[in-house]
Amino acid sequence: MQLDFLLKIQELSNTYLDSFFMLVTNLGHELVYTILIAIIFWCISKHHGLRLMVAVIVTSLVNTSIKEYFKIARPIYSDGIKALYTETAPGYSFPSGHTQAATSFWFYSSMMIRKKWFSLMAISVVFLVGISRLYLRVHWPTDIIGGILIGIIVVFMIEFISRKFTKKNYSIFTVLACTVLLPVLLVIICQYDETAMKMAAVLAGGLFGYFIELKYIDFDENTSIKNQLMKIIIGIFGVIIIKIILKKLLPDLIYSDIIRYLVMGIWITFLAPWMFVKFKLSNKKI
């Protein structure tokens, strides 16, 4: 039944729709969420930005572990299927990582903003990302449904846990548990998958940077529009240096990637805010 459904979608394929859905599917790409979360952290709310970072990274790690458990093959390998944009579809099929990440990000965002227009936009983005994965024939319908449901569950789980950490006076055990034990546990659950190790490194760096920033800097996200634009330019420039340029300088090894992603997390939550205060683009709250 699922194969027949994809074959019917395949009949609708044309150049314009191909280009459109290739563009839409990239709304679920890692770099898109990295930039969006960073901008939210720097310019709107560091607390909401951190929660979104944790939600998207945890949902990615959960997605990896579930895929490794079920090991369901993608429709790419089925007779009659002509999949598109297969470079966005490594590994196993269930659940859809793009759809799950989109669900976690936009559903959590709509919980924070609580505006009808934003909720409608969030639903539309998740729907389009899911449809794009079907149109490109890189996922089964059940993968999309599973991605949405698991993405929502992860959001509720993160929101429940985050309510336990609302005070600034964190104990050393809390810091170690969040920055070391949690990422290591997630990597073990994901069976030392390389992507999982990189995501866990971002999580460790981001959480560590957040705790340090909150204690010693506690920058004010609110400032003039001019300063906000300068913060975004400086911050994204740093992300590009770490993600692209630093990759070319370091050896092509998984340990280099772990270091790079660890630095990425620290840059977003600590180093960039420190520079904002240093250049007088933000004030300290403390």
Polypeptide structure, described:
The chain has 286 residues and is mainly α. Helix content is 73%, strand content 0%. It folds into two domains: 1-166, no CATH class; 173-286, no CATH class.
C-alpha end-to-end distance: 60 Å
Choose one word for the global shape. globular
**Into which percent range does the helicity of residues fall?**
over 70%
- Distinct helical segment count: 11
The portion of residues forming beta strands comes to under 5%
What is Rg? 20 Å
Low-confidence stretches: none
Largest sheet: none
Summed over residues and divided by their number, the pLDDT gives a mean of 88
Structural class: mainly alpha
Give the tally of β-strands: 0
Whole-number count of domains: 2
Q: Write down the secondary-structure element order.
A: HHHHHHHHHHH
